[in-house]
Amino acid sequence: MSTTRTPTPTPNATGRREDRDGTAYLVFERSFRAPITDVWAAVTESDRLVRWIGHWSGDPASGAVSFWMTAEAADAPEETIHIDECEAPRRVVMRSARPDDSSLEWLWQIDLAENDGVTTLTFAQEVGDTTLAEGVGPGWDYYLDRMVAAETGGDPGAIDFDEYFPVLSDHYRVELA
Question: Which DSSP symbol is given to 54?
C-alpha cells in the first residue's frame, strides 16, 4: 500500500469583524460536505476534538467541563469551559477565563447550518482590541484548518502554526481597527 500526501495549502486569513450586540467579534467559516450531526460531533465530542485542538472531561449538563488544549503542547494546563447555550446540533456558546487576564473571559459562539449536504460552521470569538486580534485571528485560522484536515482525512500535524502567526496578524489588526 502506498500513501500519498496532499500538500497543505498556504494559509489565508479568513476571519472578518462582525459586530454582535455592540461587541466586536472575529468570525470564521468553514464548510464540510457532511451532515450537521457529524460536524456537531467534531466540535463537541472529546474524542473528535482531540484530533485537532484538545479534549475535555466532565459533565456538560452541569454547565462546565475541564478542557486541555493539547494541540499546542501535551502538558497543556486545564481550563474550565462554561457552556452558556447548547442547542444540539445547531448552536453552542461557551466562555472561559482569558490566559492573559483571568479576571476577563473569552466568549465563543459556534453555529452550524446544513444545506444540500453541506454543513457550514460559523465560529465567532469576542475580541475587544487589536492586540488580542493579532494573536486570536491567526490562532483560529490555524485551529479551524486543523479541524478541516482532521475531518477530511488530512493530517492536522502537517499544519504549521508558524505559517499563521505572525504572518496573518496584520489582517486581524486591520479588521479590529
Answer: -
